[in-house]
Design goal:
It is globular and about 55 Å long. It is built from 10 helices and 11 strands. By secondary structure, it is an alpha+beta fold. Helix content is 41%, strand content 19%. Strand 5 and strand 6 form a beta hairpin.
Amino acid sequence: MRLQLYDIIPTLRRYIKVICTMDCDEDADTYHIRVLPDTCVELFLNYTSKPVAMIDNELHHQSIITSRMSRPMDVQMRKGAGCLAICFHPMAYQFFPVPMQALTNNTVALSDVWHEMGTALEDKLANLYTNEARAEMIQKYLLQLLASDKCDLHVAYCLNEAQRSGGSIAVSKLSTGVGLSQRQLSRRFQQHVGLSPKEYLRVFRFINSLQHLKKYPHISLTEVACQSGYYDQAHFIRDYKAYTGHSPGEVINAQHILF
């Protein structure tokens, strides 16, 4: 599969993590890979006549939105497929007119969310001759959606604090910091992120541990757990079983797991 990354317009960088194109030029489908939770919403815009991908044994023919909040997804690109992929930071609600919990751990057709505009964008992308032009066009459209900025400053503050603490901050401290009850904060998180604050912090800590696995491949799993904010090995293993279907050691050695 041919992967190409593109520069993100400065205004969009706080909302978007990655923009890339993926073209499956081979004569066969790609291998199935397991993609782990990342608390992000991803948009896959199809610009070919081929199905865009097989996800969890379901074939998706047109553009899709996926949201791996707290469970992995098994993905296979089909031969001849080509799509423009956009991975959002956990502030994607700015671009989708639905509560984020409606997308959590789900794959939905873009046309079900953006309606006629989703189909129109597919047609426009298919009629462009270069992937660079496709990346430029979709960013211009996303900028239009930001014209009425509806950023929730309370949620943004909590997301920053979660990142700063590596996911180890208490929900009670977050709610106190923004002057909301834990129930009020949970409702806002469900609407704008797709998970409750407690669930989000748990997944964020798991993601943080994956970064330690990448960065320090030679340290022990006990050290990884400790440096990632886990209180004990049992919680560390439990989260890996929940979010990957495997033990930490199996994740390190698995060839089909992407993280």
